[in-house]
């Protein structure tokens, strides 16, 4: 079972088309089914026309998906339940620090000459002051309605491991697998639940893959490092772990990654210019 999981915060471009087509090819080669998931937890950026545009673009490419369509915004209670399980075990903690406060803490440490470790995305690891709040103080602040995220207590999470954490990688050509070591510690106390919704991308995708019975994940190399964190969450929640393949990204002529935020030409624009689905497939090697 595979899934293609776009976010409806913009229009699909060639990078999305490549990932969707590769998922379909792998599903066919492995004799599996391909599901469609709409990852719309970012309620502030999600728009109905983006959702309808995704469906139109995928249909134009000739792709079909097995039912049912899953929309993350309809399953916040599932993610909240997973959050509560982690909280009950003391594996996550509420963090009341704003981004500005965290930046100031990091700057102060740098000024003292302390080493600033960074996560795979380049962001400084959380310095950790809220990890040391007493349960009474944290609860009181939550009851007062103070905005907060929930962070993974990485040291506590790692102590639950009884063996080294690993990830299954597979070949999209023949499905052959290999086992590689995972290193979730490099993410530090990552945000597992955002301020505005009862989840994050990391928590939602782990829950969704388990609920949907996903056995193979095909996605871009930009998410490869996050798989270490996902493997740890799968372990903590007792969820199954798919095999992963992270494909190369489609880039512009100047070598930049295609992105909605950068105004990369959308599939809808190609269609309006008279480009055919066959031409897109050929352009992408399908």
From TrEMBL:
Species whose genome carries this gene: Methylorubrum zatmanii
Species lineage: Bacteria, Pseudomonadati, Pseudomonadota, Alphaproteobacteria, Hyphomicrobiales
Keyword annotations from UniProtKB, A to Z: Aminoacyl-tRNA synthetase, ATP-binding, Ligase, Metal-binding, Nucleotide-binding, Protein biosynthesis, Zinc
EC number: 6.1.1.-
PROSITE patterns recorded: AA_TRNA_LIGASE_I
Similarity remark: Belongs to the class-I aminoacyl-tRNA synthetase family.
Annotated Glutamyl/glutaminyl-tRNA synthetase class Ib catalytic domain residues: 3-282
SUPFAM superfamilies on file: Nucleotidylyl transferase
One term of GO molecular function: ligase activity
Protein name: tRNA glutamyl-Q(34) synthetase GluQRS
Keyword Protein biosynthesis annotated: yes
